[in-house]
């Protein structure tokens, strides 16, 4: 009987020990999950602070090339933002599970989740605003580059149509007239591009389209195009007159030869 009592006592103690060990294991696991949660939240906050500093220091570029470079970097950051969002979502789920167990005080956990959520929301807002500024800058510099290309083409064309070379005979005048008609066709094709400048300007962000320089630039392009068209019309008439004169000379020469 003594032996049986002793065995039962040891067995009871072993069961109690196992219960205490299981309870201790659960407490340690809960504690591990809690501190893992806080560590991941701290890492998320540190990442958010880093990106906030980057976004606060970022400019929108000085020309088309720099804006394209910044836009590509921002796209990379958006990819990182998406990955970090998924990690943060997982961490938030861990926090909700910890709260559901009610093993620890919910005040600190809820406060941390609220703080990180607010900072994350602000980061996404700042990221969206910066992306919009980059898009606005990209549209502006693309518009400026296209306008500069158009001005350069118009200036080259003006030099061509204002030439004082009308040929020296019937053949050369005809060749010049054919080339000139091809140039006139190109000028007419560019009429739509010039006419669309004001529509493109209206689509730019207010901070860009309301600038005095860009508005003056559009007016200058329109005036230059009008001058090119006007001079092109005059050159057409002058070439036709020169061709008529050289044909008359040719016919006179033919008559002289016949006589």
UniProtKB/TrEMBL annotation:
PANTHER family: SPECTRIN/FILAMIN RELATED CYTOSKELETAL PROTEIN. Signal peptide: none annotated. Keywords: Actin-binding, Repeat. It comes from the Eukaryota. Pfam families: Spectrin (PF00435). The gene is Sptbn4. SUPFAM superfamilies: Spectrin repeat. InterPro entries: Spectrin/alpha-actinin, Spectrin_repeat. The keyword Repeat applies. This is SPTN4 protein. One of its GO terms (molecular function) is actin binding.
């Amino acid at each position: 009987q003594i032996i049986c009592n002793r065995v039962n006592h040891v067995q009871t103690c072993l069961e109690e020990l196992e219960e205490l060990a299981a309870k201790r294991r659960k407490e340690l696991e809960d504690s591990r999950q809690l501190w893992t949660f806080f560590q991941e939240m701290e890492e998320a906050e540190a990442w958010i602070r880093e990106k906030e500093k980057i976004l606060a220091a970022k400019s929108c570029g000085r020309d088309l090339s720099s804006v394209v470079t910044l836009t590509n970097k921002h796209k990379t950051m958006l990819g990182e933002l998406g990955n970090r969002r998924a990690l943060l979502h997982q961490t938030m789920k861990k926090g909700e599970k910890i709260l559901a167990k009610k093993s620890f005080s919910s005040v600190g956990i809820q406060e941390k989740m609220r703080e990180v959520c607010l900072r994350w929301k602000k980061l996404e807002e700042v990221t969206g605003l910066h992306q919009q500024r980059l898009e606005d800058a990209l549209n502006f510099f693309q518009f400026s580059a296209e306008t500069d290309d158009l001005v350069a083409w118009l200036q080259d064309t003006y030099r061509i149509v204002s030439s004082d070379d009308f040929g020296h005979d019937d053949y050369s005048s005809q060749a010049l007239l054919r080339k000139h008609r091809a140039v006139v066709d190109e000028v007419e094709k560019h009429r739509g591009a010039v006419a669309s400048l004001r529509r493109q300007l209206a689509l730019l962000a207010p901070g860009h389209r309301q600038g005095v320089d860009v508005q003056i630039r559009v007016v200058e392009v329109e005036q230059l195009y009008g001058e090119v068209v006007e001079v092109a019309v005059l050159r057409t008439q002058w070439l036709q007159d020169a061709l008529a004169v050289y044909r008359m000379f040719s016919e006179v020469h033919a008559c002289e030869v016949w006589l």
